[in-house]
């Protein structure tokens, strides 16, 4: 018997224009809802998870071993592209690791792939942002690795402010108001900046971008925003949506 729910599913299936594979840490509760909120209509999200509870160097290193297998499984769903949505997990081993990770995921999924750390660099390049302020929920050792990674990519980090959190569920409990307040508390409005970067794919911050850009007068990018923009570009998805910030006015080259 065909119920109303069955009819809705059939209609939704008919409207599907593309599939996005999203690889996230197991404790991440933010990336999937943020992607679903801002993805173009008709693009579905299909998730794969890698074991992670605490955001520490050792835990992130162990988690990266699961990445290729997650991508391979997403390939079974015939996704159009894969996004590895973890910032520190894709920069952990320094310059070049992000590009190597993307290549491994591409081969495993047999589809275009992006990794958040590399997506952030591409986003900053698209915005011509050479000097930035960074806010994170991370501990000081991860902030130091992030600074080193960005500076090796040619980006001057004017400041970096972290909240010292290790528990990923605690990070996921933060919201856009927290992100906005952290940025406003730590970023000098008179600082000569090309952009502000809110790091971490489990930090619910994408909804804060528009308001922060209005207040600060510079582009604001987030980990999920940069990854979403990047993966839509490689997949050929048109971002004809209520775009969250200045980044989405730029083409991904």
Automatic annotation (TrEMBL):
Q: Name one GO molecular function term.
A: isomerase activity
User: Is Isomerase there in the keyword field?
Assistant: yes
Q: Does the keyword Isomerase apply?
A: yes
What keywords were assigned to this record?
Answer: Isomerase
Which positions make up the signal peptide? none
Name this polypeptide is given: Maleate isomerase
């Amino acid at each position: 018997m065909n119920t109303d729910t069955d009819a809705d599913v059939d209609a939704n299936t008919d409207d599907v224009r593309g599939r996005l594979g999203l690889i996230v840490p197991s404790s991440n509760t933010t990336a999937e809802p943020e992607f679903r909120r801002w993805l173009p209509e008709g693009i579905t999200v299909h998730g794969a998870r890698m074991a992670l509870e605490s955001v520490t160097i050792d835990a992130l290193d162990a988690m990266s071993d699961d990445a290729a297998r997650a991508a391979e499984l997403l390939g079974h769903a015939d996704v159009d592209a894969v996004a590895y949505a973890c910032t520190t997990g894709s920069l952990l081993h320094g310059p070049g690791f992000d590009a190597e990770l993307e290549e491994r995921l591409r081969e495993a999924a047999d589809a275009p792939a992006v990794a958040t750390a590399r997506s952030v660099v591409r986003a900053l390049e698209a915005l011509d942002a050479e000097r930035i302020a960074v806010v994170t929920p991370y501990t000081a050792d991860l902030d130091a690795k992030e600074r080193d990674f960005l500076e090796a990519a040619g980006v001057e980090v004017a400041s970096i402010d972290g909240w010292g959190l290790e528990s990923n569920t605690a990070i996921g409990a933060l919201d856009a108001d927290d992100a906005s307040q952290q940025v406003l508390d730590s970023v000098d409005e008179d600082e000569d900046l090309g952009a502000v970067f809110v790091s971490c794919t489990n930090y619910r911050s994408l909804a804060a971008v528009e308001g922060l850009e209005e207040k600060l007068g510079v582009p604001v990018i987030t980990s999920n925003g940069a990854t979403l923009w990047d993966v839509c570009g490689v997949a050929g998805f048109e971002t004809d949506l209520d775009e969250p910030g200045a980044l989405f006015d730029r083409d991904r080259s």
